[in-house]
Design a protein that fits this description.
The complex is a heterodimer of chains A (about 350) and B (about 260). Chain A has about 350 residues and is α+β, with helices and mostly antiparallel strands. Chain A has 2 domains: about 230 residues, Rossmann fold (3-Layer(aba) Sandwich), CATH 3.40.50; about 110 residues, RNA polymerase II/Efflux pump adaptor protein, barrel-sandwich hybrid domain (OB fold (Dihydrolipoamide Acetyltransferase, E2P), Beta Barrel), CATH 2.40.50. Helices cover about 25% and strands about 35% of the residues of chain A. Chain A has 8 helices and 20 strands. In chain A, the strands form 4 sheets. A 6-stranded mixed β-sheet of chain A has the order 6-7-8-3-9-10, with helices on both faces. A 5-stranded antiparallel β-sheet of chain A has the order 13-12-11-14-20, with no helix packed on it. In chain A, strands 15-19-16-17-18 form a 5-stranded antiparallel β-sheet, with no helix packed on it. The longest helix of chain A has 18 residues. Chain A is elongated and about 75 Å long. Chain B is mainly alpha-helical and about 260 residues long. Chain B has 12 helices and no strands. The C terminus of chain B is likely disordered. Classes of the chains: A alpha+beta (about 350), B mainly alpha (about 260). At the A-B interface, strand 6, helix 2 and helix 4 of A face helix 7 and helix 8 of B.
């Protein structure tokens, strides 16, 4: 295996008696785009700030391109960072903001001007060079902040929730722009977010964090389809969780309410009588029996929400409620609350959470 | 509502009269030096007096040095307190307020005892050192105004994020303070500077007890011995003060607007 470009090794961070990051490990390949995804307070920003040098790890090591940078000051790390609050210097024009790092590095004036022009072209704002930050929209400010971070050609780019302060439409277009610039430059990037859609859509890999630890590190496909823990399964995407009891471990039979489901080869050492949490994504469930789906459960429709192109249906199965979406069809009226209903799914889509 | 407006106008007129009548009376009196006609004779005498010019210039120079010393002490202190030691803010605020509750005469007697010719730091042994001591004393007197002005300026910007943004771009502390923090609180620093200027120009106690040829003791001497000139001098001082205030207003138009709080 190739040498990782960024290696975070057994990093821990405590503030007094509170430990916010515990034994965090991650290797990032050159040019990779890795997202730290997790709820507020999970330690994702603290890890990012330790990579930037704003926080010193209580234990562990951070290595970039084979060099231990754990004790280096932020201004010695050659790392670029984009902040949630833009952090453009209000007293400087757009061009001066982008050229700030280059000026600090002592680059000749002509070279600074050329690089600034190149950056402005890259973010498609060449006409904004002489504007001040307060004259720009949030999306424009964040693009300038990105250009400013990239201008000094950093080894590593850190993005600390850069899209959270923007409205939904700008967020989507800017995240695509960030990804395309990152791919073009091949710059190794760490992206912190609490928005799963953002993380799933632009990352090469995602580290899902909870309680100061990486619960799972994997590609978006792996994280979504094969969550390693109950937390990951619940946090990423919408999930229906059913409580079941193993009735026959040898044949993989699990009882949900009073109905039985076969989960051959998925019980991973569970014994008969064990209680299990079983999870199903809404898109893996159909209303009524469908060809190719080997399992089914019966229940009663408890809620129906007409959302236009989609109808969201909730089906009560004993003490469990399953949510699923069906496409609207003008020829078929939506199901009614109180109707008996059968849901079908493939047992291979059922996740057993530990 | 109408009655409320009527009383509001009455209060406003009374307030304005309280402010303007003595001012108009002083102006009128300052113009009566020549018997029977209004003239600017008192102003001519004051402005033509070589002592006025030397003492005023002396105080201006002392004020400039006091402002420089104040900025050098207050800007990094207020910045560091906001950035790294916010828990110390009440303590520092208390210390900066001390000059308001300790009279200047107490401070200056303390200086005389501490820095006499027998002290290891003999500030009173020669003129240059005594001038330096006066600047230090004035910087202490102006501390409540300077600190408050700068601290208020720092409150309008996101000090921590701007510092971190500059740091990650390779800037050291010197660059951060001079190129990022100071330009963004410049108007606040200027407000503090003008207040310092106003205090230094009229200060009497310290300058007099340290035996410095400053404008304050000259003013006092003039008031004690002349009739029309002190009135003219008061108006001149008033114009200087209002000039300073207007300058703050003009300069605040050029203040960098905060990107984080555009409105």
């Amino acid at each position: 295996m190739a040498e990782p470009f960024l290696s975070i090794q057994h990093v821990r961070k405590s503030f007094g008696a509170t430990t916010v990051v515990e034994d965090f490990n991650l290797d990032v390949e050159p040019g990779e785009f890795v997202s730290f995804l997790g709820p507020s307070g999970c330690g994702k920003t603290t890890v990012l700030r330790m990579v930037a040098g704003f926080e010193e790890p209580s234990a562990g090591k951070i290595v970039v391109a084979g060099k231990d940078i754990t004790r280096l000051k932020p201004n010695q790390r050659n790392v670029g960072m984009v902040f949630q609050a833009y952090a453009l210097f209000p007293n400087l024009t757009v061009a001066q903001n982008i050229g700030f790092g280059l000026r600090v590095a002592g680059m000749p004036r002509a070279d600074i001007d050329a690089r600034v022009a190149e950056m402005l072209d890259m973010i498609k704002l060449p006409q904004m060079a002489d504007h001040y930050p307060y004259q720009l929209s949030g999306g424009q400010q964040q693009r300038i902040a990105l250009a400013r971070a990239i201008a000094p050609k950093p080894k590593l780019l850190l993005l600390d929730e850069p899209l959270s302060a923007l409205d939904a439409k700008v967020r989507v277009s800017l995240r695509e722009e960030i990804r395309s610039i990152q791919k073009k430059l091949g710059i190794t990037t760490i992206f912190v977010t609490h928005d799963q859609e953002e993380a799933l859509s632009i990352s090469d890999r995602i580290a899902v964090m909870y309680g100061g630890k990486a619960e799972q590190v994997g590609t978006p496909f792996e994280i979504y389809n094969r969550p390693a823990t109950k937390f990951v399964a619940n946090f990423v995407g919408t999930l229906n969780v059913l409580e079941g009891k193993v009735t026959d471990a040898a044949s993989g039979t699990v009882q949900v309410n009073t109905q039985e489901v076969s989960l051959k080869g998925k019980l991973n050492g569970s014994k008969s009588g064990d209680m299990l949490s079983l999870a199903l994504r809404p898109e893996a469930i159909s209303l009524g029996r469908q060809p190719g789906r080997d399992s089914s459960l019966s229940g009663e429709i408890s809620e129906v929400h007409f959302l236009g192109s989609v109808i969201r249906v909730r089906v009560g199965i004993g003490g469990n409620t399953v949510s699923l979406d069906t496409f609207n069809s003008p020829a078929t009226p939506p199901p009614a609350v109180g109707e008996k209903a059968e849901i079908s799914f493939s047992s291979s889509d059922m996740l057993v959470l530990h | 509502m109408k009655a409320g407006k009527f009383w509001a106008w009455i209060v406003f007129i009374l307030g304005a009269a309280y402010f303007f009548i003595p001012l108009i009376a002083t102006i009128e009196f300052s113009l009566r030096m020549r018997r029977g006609v209004y003239s600017f004779d008192a102003y001519k005498v004051v402005l033509g007096d070589s002592q006025f010019q030397t003492t005023f210039m002396y105080s201006v120079i002392v004020a400039v040095f006091t402002i420089l010393l104040g900025v050098l002490i207050v800007v990094p202190t207020a910045y560091w307190i906001r950035l790294r030691l916010p828990q110390l803010r009440p303590v520092v605020e208390f210390i900066t307020l001390l000059p308001l509750v300790i009279p200047a005469i107490v401070i200056v007697f303390g200086y005389i005892r501490m820095y006499g010719s027998n002290s290891p730091l003999p500030f009173l042994s020669n003129n240059t050192a005594t001038n330096a001591l006066l600047v230090i004393g004035y910087a202490a007197l102006a501390l409540p105004y300077m600190y408050r002005a700068v601290d208020t300026g720092l409150r309008t910007i996101d000090v921590r994020t701007l510092t971190e943004a500059a740091q990650i771009l390779g800037a050291g502390w010197g660059t951060i303070v001079t190129r990022v923090i100071l330009p963004n609180v410049l108007i606040a620093v200027l407000s503090g500077a003008f207040l310092t200027f106003a205090i230094v120009i009229g200060e009497f106690t310290m300058a007099s007890l340290l035996n410095r040829p400053a404008f304050g003791p000259y003013l006092q001497n003039l008031v004690a011995n002349r009739a029309y000139e002190p009135a003219a001098l008061s108006i001149i001082a008033f114009v200087i003060t209002w000039g300073c205030m207007s300058l703050i207003q003009v300069l605040s138009r050029f203040a960098p607007k905060s990107a984080n709080r555009p409105n």
